[in-house]
Amino acid sequence: MIKHWWKILCVLILGYVITAGFIFSFPDLPILNETIRNVFFHIPMWYAMIVCFVVSGVFSVLVLAKDKYKADIQASSFAFVGIFFGCMGMLTGMEWATVTWGEPWSNDPKQVGSALCLLSYLAYWVLRNSIKDEDKQRRVSAVYNVFALAMLFPLLFIIPAHSKSLHPGTDGNNFQALYEQASHLRKVSLPAMFGWILLATWITTLVVRTRVLQYLSINKESYLFDFDKKQP
Amino acid sequence: LTLIKNNHKLKHILYILSLLLIPIINFAQQDTSLQKVAAKGINELPTTGKGILYQQGKIYLVVLVLLTIFGAIIFYLFRLEKKIAKIEKEIINEANNNYKQQH
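Structure tokens for the assembled complex are given below, as produced in the milestone run.
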């Protein structure tokens, strides 16, 4: 149980976020009204996605530097869960935009940027699954992943910050919304961020473990005793 | 007092006796509510048997629904974790044995 403390922390935080996010009363802004509560559910999806992609990139660098099998599984699993959370962020964002901005897609720079970012990671997934040779698959997808990570921050933060957008915090200061929101809102929105990131990490660890098992059961004779180390 | 401290049976008996005080406290509360009835009339009192879930707006019910779904998902995740741990044990042991036999 002690090993799982961060999972329990994640459950507690998200339980608090769900409860407090609906029960607390927040400033009634024009247009937004009660939908301000989406801040605790829509935005953390993107933070979870970003964390997943960054960690995935780090593991991909490890794949290139040390040629580890397990790092490849970790990198691709993090990318996969990142894509999942990105899709969730996209869908919830479109639902929110339909009601507040009048249409699901308004070619907002941040929308376009995040769509491009998601597409580049979907391309990673397609590229990876199209290569049959395991050695090649590992290396090519790792190289691609590093490039995709290089495009992540320009697409999500830098380019939208230099253009007019419906999203808050896009006139130069990306995290303006976080600094300037009501303190009551921040009491829930900050824990929400960490809670959802923890949940994404938890799901990824499960994915990694099943895929390691899959690998072990297929390659029974292939000395997986030191699976974590460099392969001969 | 030292007699009470050392004697465990006596301690238990005292605890049980202290439980008997609870109905007395209840009686005291009923008294005040009766006074309220006298002051306001029975129809103006809030009805009993309806808790936090029935309050105006009923947002607490939505919270309950969300927490139920969330709880079920978390339960599933923990179960998955247990299952994976079990299979991990089997397969990794097998792999280790294979490795030892080969070398």
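Residues 59-102 of chain B form the longest helix (44 residues). The helical segments of chain B are 2-6, 8-19, 21-40, 59-102. Further analysis is deferred to the final report.
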